[in-house]
Amino acid sequence: MSYIRCGKSHWNINELLKALNVKANYEVIKGKIFKIMLIWVVSYMTLGMLIFAVVGGGFLSSQVIFFTSLACVCVVIGIVAALTGVGGAVLFTPIMMAFTPINMDIIRSTGLAIATMSSLVSSRQYLGSNLANFRLVLVSSVPYTLFAIIGSLLGLRIGVLGSLGKAVIRFSLGVLVLSIAVLFMLRGSGAGNLSYTVKGDKLAGLLKLNSIYSDYSLNTIVKYNVGNLQWGLLSLMGVGLISGMFGLGAGWAIVPIYSMLMQLPLKVAAASSLVLIGIGDSAAMWVYINNGAFIPLFAVPCLLGIVIGARVGSRIMPKIKTSYLKILVVIVMIIAGLRLLQQSLSILMGWL
Amino acid sequence: MSLSKVITSETGQEAKMYGNIVFLLAIISVVILAVSCILIMLRHSDAAYCTIGGLLSGDPPSELKHCYSGAVTSALGTIESIGMTLFGVSTTIGLALSCIIYMLRKDLIYVLITLMIMVMLIVSALGIISINAG
Questions:
Q1: Confidence class of residue B132 from pLDDT cuts 50, 70 and 90?
Q2: Cross-chain CB nearest to B56 (options A67, A101, A142)
């Protein structure tokens, strides 16, 4: 009988192959169960919608249709967001603000809730594998959280000014969304930074921010230093302000700050940014909650939709060509940005 | 040293605890919120209908508050509030536990940093600085 020696233990080849086969079968069965459950969920949602629309009548049917369609829209946003790497809230807030009549404070608070929820759900995985640098997240949270709170207060303050204030917010968001679309287009063509031998600054050393992570795709341990900490923290103040004011998750800005300015590996930058958003945006969200702008009946279908969509998106990611989707996202963002500008300019021009 | 050993030695207990606790609280809070929403839709469809109508006509949040009238609806509103509060304080609880671990390790810089963030979160949650959105 053949054996393989692995450390101090000996493995029977036949048993090992059997175990590997069982594992492979388990993965296939897991995939099939997931597909069946997905089909069930979609069919139940559709069936429920139809039954209530036909039989229910009255108030309940319209509610079910409203919540189901809202959840479906958010599932699509979640899938697209996961496939293209753009945050769910970055798509949700401009689309809702540009194409629905819903009050902008409610949309912004829900956008912040979506960003927070996505962060809280995925933090565990990134922190457990040391991909997210928790010490760096804590240090970055101080300016980011402070300015996210200030941003949300400013956003509400401007909103109180009436139609002019709302037009200012729509205009600024339109410009911002168009800038993000341009950034998103440029990011795709840029070459990744593969060298992390930057000399960390003194402050980063004092705060013990330099760390390591294991890159399983390369099967190596990557050691990295944090550079330009003070400039990074300064930039995060501006990002926090924008995030709180417009109700956007700020991954689109934090990742370039971490990876380009502070010279972190891209994977660490993305994971740390996700954890940071959870802390900063939950503080900003409280400002909206205290002003009654968080409406659970609106937020819950959106939260569930985005989370389900993100999970589905990450599952189907390896099987789908995302280049066309990225173009689609850029087009949607440009349309939403132009629509926001068009909505605001008529009021602003009249005021000028 | 193997990859897993390096990661285990480098990953702090505080980071793992923060990740686990915020995940758990976020899931619990969303379940509570979802249950309260379903109950409102099934038991008090008039309140839900009023909220949807208000949302679609662009009413400000202060107008939508009037939809939740009556004892039972306000009780369901309380369940919603519990869910919302739990969702909002999940990061604060996670940070508080991380702070305790830093205290035990006598890592004073990070005790101060986590306390600073917690103060900001608590100030924001208590609504000490607030704007009347009208």
A1: low
A2: A101
